[in-house]
Structures are given as C-alpha cells and as structure tokens.
Amino acid sequence: MNPLPPLRYLSFALCVAGLAASLAAALLVPHLWAAWLALAVFAVLAGTGVHDLRQTRHAVLRNYPVIGHLRFLLEYIRPEMRQYFIESDTEAAPFSRAQRSLVYQRAKGEPDNRPFGTQLDVGRHGYEWINHSLQPSRLDGHDFRIVIGEDCAQPYSASVFNISAMSFGALSANAIMALNRGAKLGGFAHDTGEGSISRHHRVHGGDLVWQVASGYFGCRDEDGRFSEARFTENARDPQVKMIEIKLSQGAKPGHGGMLPGAKVTAEISAARGVPAGVDCISPAAHSAFATPLEMMAFVARLRELSGGKPTGIKLCIGHPWEWFAIVKAMLATGIVPDFIVVDGAEGGTGAAPVEFSDHMGTPLQEGLQLVHNTLVGVNLRHRIKLGCAGKVITAFDLARMMALGADWCNAARGFMMALGCIHAQACHTGKCPTGVTTQDPLRQQALVVPDKAERVRHFHQSTLHALQELVQAAGLAHPREITAHHIVRRISDTEVRLLSNLIMQVQPGALLGPLDGLYTVFRTYWPMASAQSFQPVAAA
Fold it and tell me: Rounded to whole angstroms, how far apart are CA atoms 407 and 413?
C-alpha cells in the first residue's frame, strides 16, 4: 500500500503547504504585507480544494482538487477559444463537440436549445433531415415502449432507448451502480455486458439484460464450459428480464479478449465465476454450439431454462453467408430468437487493436439493413424484434435507426458521458479521471452514485422527449411509424433523395422463391449458406 497520496492531489497538497507556510510567515513577521497576501491566496485555494473533495457534482474535481478547475475554465471559454483549447470536430473523434455538449446538458437537466439555428452545413453531401407535417400530432408522453417476446411466458415491455452492453470490470463498481439506479428510476433496461451480473448490478434493482458470451461468465463450470445449473440460478432472478447471447461485438468482432490476472479482483472473480488473479479469457467463438442448427437449439434451451424469458442474439455482421445460415436454421427448426441486436462496427470498447476498431466488421446502417431485409424476405420479421447499437446518441439517431428497421436502440458512450466521462481515452490504464472505467477504489469514489444516477435518468428522459417532438412534428403517433420515406439525404450539391430510394428494400417472402431480381448480396451468398454449417457451400 502506497503511504503517499496520489500525485493528482499534489496541487491541493501544495496549496495546504503554502497556507501553512504563509500563516507562519504572517505570524512571525506581522508587518510583512506580502505574507498576509499569500495567506489570503492560499486560504482561498486550500478552501477550494476542500470544497472540491466534498462536493458530489463533478468527479473531475473530486479526483483533481484545485487543478481540475482548469478544465472547466477551458469549457467556459470554448465558444471563443475552442479552436485552441478544445479538440475540433473531426470524423476521427468518437463524437462531435456538439454531441458531447448535448449529452452533458441533457444529463444535467439543463436547457439544450441553441440560438441562431442549425450549426451544421446543410449543403454538405450526406446531410439528412426528417420531413415534417403541416398537421403535427399531439402525444401524451414520451415513454415509448415495445413488447419483446410476445409469445414467451415472461414477455418484456422495453423502452425504445436502453443502456448498451458494458461489463463490470470494464466499468467501475460505482459506474455500474449509477447506471442501474438510473435505469430503475427511468424505467429502462441495463445490459450487463459479457462480464455477467455483479453484486453492484443488484443494489438498486434496475431491469437487466443478461449477456451470455463465449466465456460463459456467471454460467460456466470449472473448465469454462456452459453450465445449465449456474445459468438457471442467475437467469431466473426476477431482475433479469431478457437473455442476450453475444456472438460478436462491433468494436472488435471475431477477436475475443483477455482480462489480465492482475485485474481479476475478488469481486470480478465472484461475478464471472473465474479464479481471482488468473488471466480471464474470452474466446473468439462459443463452445456450446458449432453449427447454426445447434445455435437455435441453444437459444431454445436458454429460453426454457430462464423460465420463458425473451432470449435473443447480438452480433456484428461479418460474412453474409454466416448470417444467412442462421436464418436458414430458423426456417429449418422453427426456432427463432425473440430479438436480435445488431452491433455496428463503429461501436466502442475500452481497448481494441486499431485495425479492428477501424476496419473490421460491418457498419451499423449496412448491418441493420441486411438483417431487417433478410427477415422480411423469409417472412420472419414480425416474429423478431430488432435492436441496434453503434454511435446512437441523439433523438435523430434513434429516429434514423428506426427508419432503417430497428425497433429499439441501445447506447453505451452516451450513457458513459452522462456519468461524467470526458473521453480522456485512459480506459485501459486504470487512471480514468472521472472514476467511470477504473477499478482504483480511490478514483472511483469521485463518481457519486445518487448524483450520476439522476444524470443517467435525465439523459434518457430528455432524449426521449426530443424524440417525441420529432415524432409529433412528423405527424406520427409512435417512433415505430418512422420509415425511410420520412428521411431525406443530400447526395450532391444539386440533388437530394429520400432515404427509401437509397437503401436496400426486400419484399416479404422474396427469399423463399427465385432470387432473380434481388440484390447481389442475396443472389451471391444466400445459395452458399447452409443451416448445417457456418462454412460456405458450393452453390447448386
């Protein structure tokens, strides 16, 4: 145990030392006015530091007393000086400055209206908007919900906006508790991520989507294989509302992962069912099934073991024939998942190889379209709800994804920013300045759970309120009525087109007959897919 205080408290310690030194000088040489001036200055600074450590609103100030105010000074002057002190809006940035500001404002319950109209270049290629109605609708509220697993024994009424998968271990205990308490207050779902259900998920009782991944954390035997007994014990907890089988994630599809033994604490060991202090491996592929037919049987078995809770899959689209093989297995067995979550390649993670983050996996728009259209083409879309994730943060993002076929959206980084994340990109170092992604008990104390839970709730509610206003302006009654016919995109300096004229659209049942006239992806890869294997087969 290091007896010295962390270096981030150095500025506060220097202020206290300066206060003591100036007080001594003032008492020893009462007529020295500089000593009294220094005493006043250091007294203000030391008092500020004490206040920073005791306040609960700003995690940065709790972790960086006194010196942390520099960040807020730069934030205050950014309208005039943002080109010099604040990162510019580039495509490489996870979110634009305007998007981050919007999340912070909504999380804090501050007004998010802006003067002087749009700050976007409406003439740029790719700019999109929603057509409005001259007869706007009037809705009673913004608690938009859908029912998932209508044929299950325990269907779930879900919000159309929920917390995406983030594991305990990747996030701190306080972050998990704040997210779950916010979900409880706001009436929406919290995905556990593949790290399973920790004791911190259970403190406030918010709805959980339990993610079961290739490591089978929370439901594994001593050899790391799936355990029905351990799964049943967790899955039948009333707090668990849905079961999500993760096949891949957008940030690093096909990669797998490892949590070094040094980071496998006793708490993480208990949640995941792995030995403490030993490297925790997440294999790249599942061991509980090896073929699409076996996958469908696994879906049905988990649904049964959970007591009839909605059970689905999450994946980032890769080889089209593998996705088509899953669909053919649905047709062959009659077993369908209650939901599918499509994760876009633009999704984030705490650590991934740059090549995987930037160049592996299908982006959300294309992946969601392929999944939606395939299910329409085999007449299964009405039986399966579609969720999506991947840089979904604003109400327009939600509306656009629903226009592409989603029933609901998940967000990870948006809710992380609601917790106070400032994109320091130190997630993998254990030195997160706001206590969101660290297991350092001292650092995460800066994240005050009741305060940040309210911010999570505010962000969710304010975003849905904005979605309500968009739906009303379009003259609709529910976000599910938004289609690609409502979205317009500028494709050149002189031409705009409806999104419906730019995206893939397949007619119901089209894949059950001749493939002539269908999109190339179907004509090429549908014949190569087999319910018996994920490997491509020669076309007949």
Answer: 20
Q: For residue 57, what are the domain limits? A: 1-86
Q: Is residue 274 domain-resident?
A: yes
Q: Of the residues 47, 70, 86, which one is the last residue of a structural domain?
A: 86
Mark 218-246 as b/e (b = at least 16 C-beta within 10 Å).
bbbeeebebbeebbeebbeeebbbbbbbb
Are 232 and 373 members of one domain? yes
φ, ψ of residue 287 in degrees (nearest 5): -105, -10
Domain shared by 187 and 284, yes or no:
yes
Nearest to 325 by CA among 537, 539, 510, 538: 537
CA distance 75 to 85: 9
DSSP strand E in 274-368: where? 280-282, 311-315, 339-343
In a domain, 514, yes or no: no
CB 281 within 8 A of CB 308: no
Residues 79 and 160 in one domain: no
Does 237 reside within a domain? yes
C-beta separation of 342 from 293 below 8 A: no
Beta strands in 384-526 (DSSP E): 385-389, 408-411, 487-490, 496-498
pLDDT digits (tens, 9 = 90+) for 330-379: 999 999 999 999 998 876 665 566 676 666 789 999 999 999 999 999 99
pTM for this structure? 0.85
Encode pLDDT of 479-533 as tens digits: 999 999 999 999 998 999 999 999 999 999 999 999 999 999 999 999 999 999 9
Most distant CA atoms of the chain, gap in Å? 101
**Distance (Å, whole) CA 237 – CA 458:** 27
For residue 151, the domain's CATH number is 3.20.20.70
Instruction: Give the residue from 258, 270, 288 showing the smallest Cα distance to 196.
Output: 270
* Cβ(162)–Cβ(188) below 8 Å: yes
CA separation for the pair 384, 152 (Å, rounded): 12
Looking at the fold, whether 81 and 157 belong to one and the same domain comes out as no
Instruction: Please provide the size of the chain in residues.
Output: 540
Whether the Cβ atoms of residue 106 and residue 112 lie closer than 8 Å to each other: yes
Residue 144 contacts residue 160 (beta carbons within 8 Å): yes
> Contact 166/412 with Cβ under 8 angstroms?
yes
Tell me which H or E stretch contains 532. none
Cα–Cα distance measured from residue 231 to residue 245, given in angstroms and rounded to the nearest whole number? 12
Find where tokens 């010196």 sit.
67
